[in-house]
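Risk register update: the risk of archive-format incompatibility is retired. Evidence:
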Amino acid sequence: MRMAAYGGLGVLGLLVGVAGSLVQGGSFPLGLVLGLAGAGGLFWGGALALRSRMGAAIPAGGWAVAVLLLTITRPEGDFVFAADAGSYLFLLGGMAIAVVCATLAPSERPLFAVPEPRPRPGARS
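Archived output:
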C-alpha cells in the first residue's frame, strides 16, 4: 500500500511540476505564487499523509524531474522557462520548499496529538 502511495505521489509531483512551470510565466507575481503554493501543498501533504520524509521527497523528486526536463530548449528554439527573475524564483523557491517540507515532516506522532498527562509524583493509581 505504501509503495502505491509513493508511486502516486511521484506522478502527482510530475504533474504539479508541469502545471507550475506553465502557470508561473502567465502573470508574474500571481502565477509564481500559485505554482509554488501548489508544489508546497503537495510536498507538505505527502509528508503528512505518509508520516515520513519520503512522503515529501518523492513528489519533490517528481517535481524536479519535470521542471528540469522543461528547462531544456528544443532544436526549434521553443522553451518553457524564459531567462527572467520569475523562472529562477520558481526553480529555486520550489527546491527550497521541498527541503523545508522534507526537513519538518512529522514522523512518529500524529499531527494534532495531545500529550498524555503524566502522573504526579506520590499520586496513587
